[in-house]
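User: Please predict the structure of the protein below. I'd like the answer in structure-token form so I can feed it into my own downstream comparison script.

Assistant: Understood. Taking the following sequence of 273 residues as input:
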Amino acid sequence: MIDKNAPIGVFDSGVGGLTVAREIMRQIPNERIVYFGDTARVPYGSKSKETVTRFSRQIVRFLQTQKVKAIVIACNTASAYALEEIEAELDIPIIGVIKPGAKVAAQTTLNGKIGVIATEGTIGSHIYSRYIKEINPKAEVIGKACPLFVPLVEEGLWQDPVTDEIAKRYLTELIDIGIDTLILGCTHYPLIRSTVGKTMGEGVTLVNPAYETARELKELLTEKEMLNEEEAKLGDNRYCFYVSDGAEKFKRFANSIIKYGILSARIINIEEY
């Protein structure tokens, strides 16, 4: 029997996956969460498939020690590289952030031109294109790596002239192609959604995979009768955060985007798993 009260495991290469955790907190507020950010080995976007898969397996093993009932890979690169292999090895549900966003984009586009902005690893994998074309074979998918967005987000420059300028440089070619739908294909990017939206203009629909992933998780848990129906009690610590390095920096960033008060982030040696 699955313990409905068991937590959801969420992991990312660092802090970007907190946008996914935040959406889970909003959309399924009764659920407990164990979050792991691999802050010692970030970024994943420039690493090989083999390395990212090895890191992901270690993290999944750690999350299993926390008795999680389901896992969310809140990292586009790890979803692209590791999800299919790990899914075959697990006896609990696991989802990534790519399929939910791809599905919505494929169903939303009117002119069939869909842009994807992400890390080099995600763009190089062509995985968004693959999923989108399974649903909408006529779609044209244009990928654009935007590596500078991640450090800008992590420095807190969400609404800053520097970020505006970089966004214009990255996004101009997507505007010229005439896309009508744009996937924010890195979990950091929802934090600069307003900048991206302003640059792209009102005619372009932005797809936020963090939002769509939380929605898909809720559907999955409902379907499998795994939703936690117990409401949180006062003083109940529903959210636990672990990192592989830099706990204080992680905590500061986390508190800037999650308003539930992150009391602590514990460092664990992920190489032991």
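That's the full token string. Residues 49-65 form the longest helix (17 residues).
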